Amino acid sequence: MDERAKLLGRGAFGYVYLCTRSDTEEMVAVKTILEEDTEFAEDEVRNLKKLQQFDPDQNCLVRFNRYQEIQKNYLLEFEKLDMNVQDFLEQSSRPLHLSEIQVITQQMLVALKALKSIQMVHGDIKLDNIMWRNQQLEPRNIKLIDFGVAQDVCELRCGDILQLLPQRAPEVLLGLPLSEAVDMWALGSVIASLYINNELYSSTCELDGTWKLKTECSCPTGNISTSSTTTRHEDTQAFVSLLKQILEVDPRKRISPSEALLHPFLTLTNFPSDLTEDLSDNKAAASIKKPSSKHLLSADTP
C-alpha cells in the first residue's frame, strides 16, 4: 500500500485509507479486508462487479475501480469521495434545509432504482453510507457507498436480520417476506431523521422497536409534526406526502424508487420553508444543534 496512505475510517469488516495510485497519481480510497473476513470480501466484490454494469455517476453509486488479493487480504479501490452526511451534520451548526434533503432524496432514489432493476438489496442505508463527491463544489453530486452486506432478493429469507434498528423495516422486525422495499423504508427513516434532526425511531432494543411499530403502525410519521406556520408551505406538504408513501408499513403498498422519483416534492424549485428555517436559526443562534420540536408533520397532510 502507498506509504502516504492516510486512514479515513473503520468499518465492520476493515479499514479505509486515502491512497495515491502510483501509475496516475490519482487520489483513491482503498478498503482493506483482512483474511479472517475473506467471505465478506468476496461477497462485496461480487456485488460491486454486478454494479459495474451501471454508470456510477448517472446512477449515484460509488465508482469501484479494481481489487487485489494480497496474502489472502483484499484491497478494494474506489473513487475518492468527500464526506458523508453524518459527518457533515456533526460539523455543521444547523440541520439541513428541505431543499438539501430534496437533493439527497432524489439522488438516493436514483441509486435504489438501479439496485431494484437487478433485484439487489443494499441492506444498510444510513447517513454514514451517503456521501458527497465534493460537498462544497458539487453539493448535488451524492453517492451511495458500502455494498458489503448487499444481497440479491432471491437470497433473502424470512427472519433475516438486516439494517440498523433505527432504519429497520417493519417486515424485518416481524420476520415477514423481504424485498427491495426494505431499502425504501430505510431511506424514509433517514430523510425523516434529517428533517427532525433526530432519529425517527431511537430504539436500541428490537423488542422495543417492534412494540413502537405496533403502536404507531397506523401512521409511522405521526411523531413528526409541523407547526401551523409551516404547514402552509407547499414544500413542506409535498415532503410529508412523499414521506408517508415511503414509510408505508405494508411493503406491498410502499412506493417504489421509480414512482417516488415522479413525486411533486422532487420537482420543486421554490422552498419557502428554507427561509423560515434561516430566520429561526438566527433567533436560536448556537442552540440549534438538536431541535426536538421544530419540525412537525400534520396528520391530515395527504
UniProtKB/TrEMBL annotation:
One of its GO terms (cellular component) is cytoplasm. Pfam families: Pkinase (PF00069). This is Protein kinase domain-containing protein. Keywords: ATP-binding, Kinase, Nucleotide-binding, Serine/threonine-protein kinase, Transferase. The keyword Transferase applies. ATP binds at K31. Residues 2-266 form the Protein kinase domain. GO terms for biological process: intrinsic apoptotic signaling pathway in response to DNA damage by p53 class mediator; positive regulation of transcription by RNA polymerase II; smoothened signaling pathway. InterPro entries: Kinase-like_dom_sf, Prot_kinase_dom, Protein_kinase_ATP_BS, Ser_Thr_dual-spec_kinase. The keyword S-adenosyl-L-methionine does not apply. One of its GO terms (molecular function) is transcription corepressor activity.
